[in-house]
UniProtKB/TrEMBL annotation:
Lineage: Bacteria, Bacillati, Actinomycetota, Actinomycetes, Pseudonocardiales
Listed PANTHER family: TWITCHING MOTILITY PROTEIN PILT (PTHR30486), TYPE IV PILUS RETRACTATION ATPASE PILT (PTHR30486:SF6)
Family: Belongs to the GSP E family.
Residues covered by region (Disordered): 1-21
InterPro entries: P-loop_NTPase, T2SS/T4SS_dom, T4SS_GSP_E_ATPase
CDD domains named in the record: VirB11-like_ATPase
Descriptive protein name: Flp pilus assembly CpaF family ATPase
Amino acid sequence: MSTGINEQRQPPIGVDRPGFVPNPATVRALRARVARRLQGEGSHGVQRASLVAEEITAWAHERASRGDPSLSEQDERVLAAAVLAALAGLGGLQPLLERGDVENIHIHGHDQVFLELADGRLQRWPHAVAASDAELVELLEAMFARLGQTSREFSPARPIGNLRLPGGGPLGARLAAVREISGRPRVAIRRHRLAHTTLTDLHHQGSLDTDLLHFLQVAVAAGLNLLVTGGPYAGKTTLLRALCDEIPDREHIVTVEDDYELGLHLNPVKHPLVTPLEARTANAEGVGEVSLDDLLKQTLRHSPSRVVVGEVRGGEITALLRALGNGAAGGMGTLHAASARAVPDRIAALGQLATPPLPVEAAYRWTASALDLIVHVARRDHAGRRERFVTEIAEVGQVGDAAIPDLTSLFVPRPGDGRAVPASAPSPVLLARLEARGLDRGIFQHHHGRWDTHPWGDEDR
């Protein structure tokens, strides 16, 4: 009986085989040389790369004098990148973070590395990311101490840690690590691959059909408050980022996130007025924490046109509802939920985690007053490819006879593949708001949807 993906009888996992991987001992030795010179000469920035090139040239001459084979120019560039990565504190993770096709990196000990690609394939990386588990732990300790907003402890006393890495693209990557409690050190890294995504991009990739594209563009223009929901890695953040792209450039956007993932502040041409707020964990001494709840309470002091929240996972849901219900139009956020209809109960459950707990009845009332739409996304692996798409959209109404917000299904999952197709038009009040911004109500006559047939594209998460 098969016990896992390493079982011989299982179909083989694809293995990436780059032509040249630097010897970790060589990288460490060169890093030490450059570090000594940096300390002595006070060199930084571009000079650091020059020093690495000089040390590699000297090292290559030493090899030649011993009669060792020389490296190609390309191999020397790879070696230089590895040394620079070691200096930056990313070590053997750097080449994996730079791969544009990688979505998740799973490290189960220094020599068990698996890459989850954007199309859903699992690929074995045949090289260790450190010389031993002990060296991997040392690398992680150094990363937690130096790379975060605050110096954090990652030790036997604190064997669980989360960190945003500076590598992996303009938005960096998210690292989660454990030690001691799992036998070997385990690391999961999530790359934020798509820093700039539009609704048109998602339409071309198959996440939206033509009618959904039009509807969501109008919903943002009309300033509706909406929540993007779905399961893990269903594409919530990618869709939220694309929705934000529709916000007019004259508006002041305040983004609130545990880790910067939306990246609106990285595109000042499109969004010149963005206040990005990022939560901060406590430092090694246990002080300095700034929670998502703290940031949400701060947002209204910045006079935002729109408040956008990356993801809510706990009692800060009450602050989110206050922020979206304060009268500013067009607020957005994401939330884990099994379906659009599960959202009111999910919000009520999270409200119980607030201090003080939010009564369920109040959570329902706040949800009804703060939200206009719930946009639910789904993920499935089909025919060897990973697909992410909008599967339903619901209008949030007032609290009804059942004491919970009434939800009207505007788009529902299509039988067979789950892609969203029109079910019913919005309420007269909401329809008037949307038509004032150009909605074509005729889209609700296409009961089978208008999904285009094209190759599936990649999405972030």
